[in-house]
Amino acid sequence: MINGVETKQITHQSRALIPLILIIFIDSMGYMVSIPTFLRLFTEHSHSLMGDFSPMMANVLFSVCIAMGSFGYVLGAPIIGTWSDSWGRKRTLVFSLVLSLIGFMLPIIGVLTASLSWILVGRFIAGIASSSQSLAQTAIADISEGTQKAWYFALVAIAMTLSLLIGPPLGAYLSDPNYVSWFNNTTPFFATLVLILLTLLMTLKMYSNTNNRHDGEKLLTLSNFHNTLKEALSSEITTRLFLIFFLYELGWSFYYQDISLYLTQEFQYSVNLTSQFLAYTGIWMGLGLTFGYKFLTRYMSLELLLSGTLLCCALSFIACALTQNAFSQWIFVVPGAIGVGMVYPTIMTLISDSVSKAKQGCVLGLAAAAFSAPWGISALLMGPLTNISQSLPLALAAISLVSATYLSYRKKRFAQQTLSVEERG
Q: In the 3-class helix/strand/coil scheme, how is 7-32 assigned residue by residue?
């Protein structure tokens, strides 16, 4: 009878996990689809939208379009927390998916009417809606613990990696009329709308948690943001983890968001070929997650794994910044992509484990902001920096990851010193 209850509980967890992972996947994929679509829009078919603006201005507008989604995410995290307090998780997740539908409809209107404003507003709304990722990750943390939590966060990273693998080619090929005559810059957004609708239906059917939150849990909201930030960062170890996370994401986002511009402008890659390169990095990230991460967590502590993978990323992106030919990017990005895939679940688990269960909601909400803010910052700076030097964003990517690696080593020493003091006490 006990086994039957346990089996029923596992089945219930699995059913709840599927829509949560899908929400994280679709939010990430919507972002990935946009990169090649906007790259094509502003480099190949920009006259109707931009008139006679210079290529340098096209770089800036491309950066702004990409950045709007990330800044919407940062603003949306506490808003989603506020709504979840009032409405419950399921209602908030459903509302966010409806908001995503609106966010992807508006760029279609913008492209069809040659209105940049509609595109920017749509990107911002979609960014706000995608901040439901933090709520979905909190729900995943609630139904897991220990090594299971590490594996569930690995599934989150796999979902994000699959979006990186599928999103760029989807955006590139669905916007290319050379493949199908009726494909254009709106087709990727229509395809994303279909996937959002499917995710919405599965969430309504399979996810049953309608409670506001678990006992003692405090989600990040607009009203408690300042106190939550102060409380979450009261521990030096947690503060260092957040800083490492921020620098890691800043470095990775500088590389990932700039490499498309870099390859198209420095080496005359087509949009389709740059999307293949982005998908190629996704393959290596996926291999790192599905094989490397699960294997290494059996034999290494998460702290040691974090330092090692960050060092791997730093060395990889230093090589990418220094290389002088396109083919070398395909070689040097491999260890970096593998490392990037393993850093995310490692550091998310460490952050989650560094605080009590009652703080999971607010701390993972802050982690969502720490994840998204660097993507907005790097996207906004990418165009102007590229106008100064094509390789400057890649150099900043390497510097950020070197800094994160150094801090991870310092964090490890601090943790050892803290443990030593506790043992003596």
A: HHHHHHHHHHHHHHHHHHHHHHHHHH
Rounded to whole angstroms, the Cα distance separating 306 from 348 reads 11
Pull the structure tokens for residue 177.
């009329």
Domains recognised in the chain with CATH numbers: 2-424 (1.20.1250.20)
Whole-Å CA distances, 38 to 42, 175, 188, 383: 6, 10, 11, 13
298 Cβ contact partners less than 8 Å away, ≥ 6 residues apart: none
Task: Find out whether 305 and 342 touch, Cβ atoms under 8 Å.
Answer: yes
Q: Which amino acid is at 366?
A: L
Spatial CA neighbour of 161 closest among 283, 12, 41: 283
pLDDT tens digit sequence for 270-300? 999 999 999 999 899 888 877 888 789 888 8
**For the whole model, what pTM was predicted?**
0.79
pLDDT digits (tens, 9 = 90+) for 138-177: 777 666 665 666 677 777 777 877 888 889 999 999 999 9
Q: Coil, strand, or helix at residue 421?
A: helix
Rounded Cα gap, residues 140 and 136, in angstroms: 6
Containing H/E element for 302? Answer: helix 302-322
Decide: helix, strand or coil at residue 366. Answer: helix
